[in-house]
Amino acid sequence: MIQLSNVAKYYPAGFGRTYVLRNINLTINEGEFVSIMGPSGSGKSTLLHILGLLEEPSEGEYRFLDQPVQKLSEKRRTELHRSHIGFVFQAYHLIDELTVYENIETPLLYKGMSGNERKSRVADVLDRFNIVAKKDLFPSQLSGGQQQLVGVARAIVAQPKVIFADEPTGNLHSAQAIEIMELFRELNQKDGVTIVQVTHSEANAEYGSRIVRLKDGWLEPEAAPAV
Ligand SMILES: Nc1ncnc2c1ncn2[C@@H]1O[C@H](COP(=O)(O)OP(=O)(O)OP(=O)(O)O)[C@@H](O)[C@H]1O
Asked: Which UniProt keywords apply (predicted)?
């Protein structure tokens, strides 16, 4: 599903470049639940943004769903993103002026889905996440945990194949964090959604089946799976 070959990312710095990612080779199969870990500044968010089609690599090749991402037109890349990718941010990134209902509905509007189908999809997700009673509230009227539930609801409403989550529980206390992680586990195991999360938390990483570690922009060799 995801294949990075010799991917690097750099930014111009003075007369040279600063490399944030170097020589990344990574394959993630459909149905995996992967955690990206590493020290602050090691390039985790940058890698996740590249995987989620929010940023482009400077070097190397990225194939997503067997398509060479960098060779696609901007329009096709946007379509790929809207059809198959859900993104969850640490700081929620909900739209303050929209209600919970409207926030969750947004990706379906972008997809051009009919009014009736939108209604039924949003109703299903509100129900599943137990937030029906909050549907007319604005993000500022919710707790952090509830805002992140809405963030995840918005990420999955269009039924993506993969969710990329950037420290999804970074702003939450532990009970709320567990609720979000349990939800990811269910989405992965029951619905078969591939999940790739950036996390500093070993406890969160335990929910996944594989840990990928970055250090100074390099990928560390992965431990062989236990037999
Ligand atoms: N637009 C940019 N221009 C220049 N440097 C950048 C840019 N974006 C990120 N960087 C640098 O890339 C490095 C990696 O950043 P990144 O956010 O990927 O790290 P991270 O591992 O996610 O860190 P954290 O755990 O603190 O969130 C940092 O040193 C950062 O300053």
From this structure: ATP-binding, Nucleotide-binding, Transport
